[in-house]
Design a protein that fits this description.
It contains eight helices and no strands. The chain is 80% helix and 0% strand.
Length: 177
């Protein structure tokens, strides 16, 4: 397949995903997975998950590293650049314009409505991302129980999620997971 015929829809999807990255780009994982893995078959499920793990484990802008790795796997260096620019540019421009406007016109009804309406969208996108990742890891009853326990601890207690992460890392190092 010709590189340009892949590059245009590839870049276009990252531009669109940028506009949906409300509350952070991690909420885009289910749709990225659907398009890149299930529909286009540009990367495998394992490549997608590995890129996510490597991006999240690296210091710095985690989602940009993740999408750059995906782009690299699909189109090489041009893909890494297109994915990164596509995910950053639209949302950054809109955010700057919105916050400049809302700082001056904070009393307007639609500005207040916008602030109130973004929270449920963010929560929904994060839950769908969590579901995608949990579904791939729920391979036995111990992992399902651990996922359930993690969700309960994070939702029902004031326990810092870093402690849950540390406990999971310790269980993994000891061979329990």
């Amino acid at each position: 397949m010709h590189t340009l015929s892949i590059a245009l829809p590839f870049f276009g999807h990252f531009l669109l995903w940028s506009l949906l990255s409300v509350g952070g780009a991690i909420g885009l994982l289910p749709d990225m997975h659907r398009y890149l893995v299930v529909e286009q078959h540009w990367v495998t499920d394992a490549q997608f998950t590995s890129a996510l793990a490597l991006g999240q484990a690296s210091p710095g802008p985690n989602m940009i590293l993740f999408v750059a790795l995906l782009g690299w796997q699909i189109l090489g260096l041009p893909g890494a650049i297109l994915a990164s620019i596509g995910l950053i540019l639209p949302s950054s421009l809109i955010t700057v314009a919105y916050f400049r406007y809302s700082r001056i016109h904070h009393e307007r009804h639609w500005v207040r409505a916008m602030h109130s309406g973004m929270a449920p969208i963010t929560v929904g996108l994060l839950l769908s991302s969590g579901w995608l990742l949990a579904r791939q890891e729920a391979t036995n009853w111990q992992r399902v129980a651990l996922i359930f326990l993690t969700v309960v601890l994070v939702v029902r207690t004031r326990l810092n999620p870093l402690w849950v992460l540390l406990a999971g890392a310790a269980l993994g190092m000891l061979g329990f997971i």
